[in-house]
Amino acid sequence: VVIECFVYDEYRNLVHEKTKFFNSSGVRLTGELTGLSLQTGSLQSIITGGIESINQDNSSPTPAKTPYTLYKNREDALNADEIQMTIYLDATQGLKVGSPVRHKGIAVGRVTSLNFADDIETIICTVHIQRNVAPLFRAKTLVWVEQAEINLSGVKNVETLVFGSFLHFLP
Fold first, then answer.
1. Please, which pLDDT band fits residue 159 given cuts at 50, 70 and 90?
2. Does the predicted model carry a pTM greater than 0.90?
3. Do 90 and 122 contact (CB within 8 A), yes or no?
């Protein structure tokens, strides 16, 4: 479906190659074991519907003469430049949706879903990774769940005691 829109002349400078559009209509309620999430647009968009836009300096530009994508919500528009990857794990070891993916101590992505595979043994972990970091993931990249280690010689990864487990990788 192609939607044709008109932008008032005074707002023309707000729409450019790095603009992302998303649906802001209605109310969206999602729930998981970790809690509920409620997203709403303005009162006017709840009643009449609407499309909003955001501009990010670090987003990839839309090629000239290409229609803009209409994302289903603000979060999808904000994360449009990320790469989705699937990682198979034997155990989660405290990993949960929202846990970071780190490389050399820097968060470069996050876990977006955890599900059992058909064999009920393997865990399918879906992550979103920053596009510029994606080339570090290759066929032999090692990925593991980092967690606190407490033993007689000391404590390793103390931050995981407070912030929880995270995915770490070595290209």
1. low
2. no
3. yes
